[in-house]
Design brief:
This protein has 116 residues and is an all-beta fold. It has a single domain, classed as Immunoglobulin-like (Sandwich), CATH 2.60.40.10. Helix content is 0%, strand content 50%. It is built from no helices and 7 strands. It starts with 14 loop residues before the first strand and ends in a 6-residue tail after the last strand. The model has no long low-confidence stretch (mean pLDDT 88).
Length: 116
């Protein structure tokens, strides 16, 4: 977004929409996708995932991947190394900058029983 006050005077949060993962993923991987409506100011996105929903507590999640910054438009991250065959997973995305953090999600999926 073009804003002359962005960065020099104000830190804006990111706004993500349409957080999505297929209900059944591959046997060991999945893609989580979203639309970035506003990429915020100096934002770092981190995807937290695991076999239980840790809410907005980073220490409650068993895994995380730093995605880094995001631009306006569609984006995704691939998560690999998942347990096979019907394992249920949860994920949330945290957008953080000097002004704080915003959490999006959760999304849920199960790993597939057959090879892709």
């Amino acid at each position: 977004m073009d804003d002359p006050l962005r960065g020099d005077y104000f830190e804006y949060p990111a706004i993500l929409r349409g957080l999505h993962s297929p209900s059944i993923s591959g046997t060991n991987s999945t893609n989580i996708s979203w639309e970035t409506y506003d990429n915020g100011t100096n934002i770092t996105l981190t995807v937290f995932y695991g076999e239980s929903d840790g809410g907005s507590q980073p220490s409650a999640w068993s895994n995380s991947i730093v995605h880094g910054s995001t631009g306006v438009g569609d984006d995704y991250i691939e998560i690999t190394g998942l347990s096979c065959c019907g394992t249920d997973y949860y994920a949330r995305i945290r957008a953080s900058n000097d002004a704080g953090e915003t959490w999006f999600g959760p999304v849920t999926w199960s790993t597939d029983y057959s090879d892709d």
